[in-house]
Write a structure and sequence with these properties.
The protein is of the alpha/beta class. It contains eight helices and 13 strands.
């Protein structure tokens, strides 16, 4: 449930949908299990399955587009795609630039991961650029070390460049579990953001309404909770 707002207020908010029935779904493709590129070179993960189901319920044809995280909001605003569905946390800052649907993942914790549970969390902390975690680290007074991709933040801890990484706990859990004890959680969980939602241009109120209705229908019939548990485990927060 990542991430922060870029300075894009000056960009025009006038781009329309690609067509009446086709919606371009913008994602990062580098944040498993939310989204990633599979062995066939296709967008995969929780948000791919969710997005396809939402499009079906909204009677829309969806095309998937990948974009680097640090320019994902500007490229939505400028019309390179029509939605952001990329593990993006709903924040007041971002909401000044784009609109959000209702959340499709409840507000969940961020967490620190390090090589030792007693690491000094006031030291050097890695976080992905333009994320709510990076903003939080800066506010704590620790030394923020930013990287463009989440994988690089983990590598920085492993190679000793950073004392710890702060990221979405949902992203970190499988990494810690698969590390064979090399990586451990440190300190207390940190609640950040208002859940994860789809980002749309402020001018696309009709599209926002269609996806809001589709998300609500999945909440109402339980399929959204089932999908969250499929991708994040039975202990994941649900609606």
């Amino acid at each position: 449930m990542k991430k922060l707002v870029l300075s894009v207020a000056a960009l025009a908010l006038t781009a329309g949908l690609a067509s009446a029935q086709t919606v371009r779904m913008g994602t990062e493709g580098a944040y498993p299990p939310y989204n990633f590129i599979n062995d066939a070179g296709e967008v995969d993960g929780f948000e791919r399955e969710l997005g396809d189901e939402l499009c079906a319920r909204a009677e829309l044809t969806c095309e998937w587009v990948t974009n680097e995280w640090d320019s994902i909001i500007p490229n939505l605003v400028s019309g390179n795609y029509d939605t952001i569905i990329a593990g993006m946390s709903i924040t007041d800052e971002r909401d000044e630039v784009i609109d959000f649907t209702q959340n499709y993942i409840p507000p969940a914790a961020s967490a620190y991961v390090a090589l030792s549970a007693d690491v000094d969390l006031s030291g050097i902390i890695a976080a992905q650029t333009a994320t709510i975690q990076a903003g939080h680290v800066a506010e704590t007074g620790a030394t923020l070390l930013e990287f463009p991709t989440p994988d690089e933040t983990i590598a920085a801890v492993r190679n000793g460049e950073a004392d710890a990484v702060l990221a979405d706990k949902d992203f970190l859990v499988p990494i810690v579990n698969e590390s064979g004890g090399e990586l451990v959680f440190a300190g207390e969980d940190v609640p950040l953001g208002g859940g994860v939602g789809m980002g749309v241009r402020e001018s696309d109120g009709e599209l926002k309404g269609k996806f809001d209705a589709a998300i609500q229908s999945m909440k109402d019939d339980g399929t959204l909770n089932d999908m969250i548990k499929k991708w994040f485990g039975d202990e994941a927060l649900v609606f």
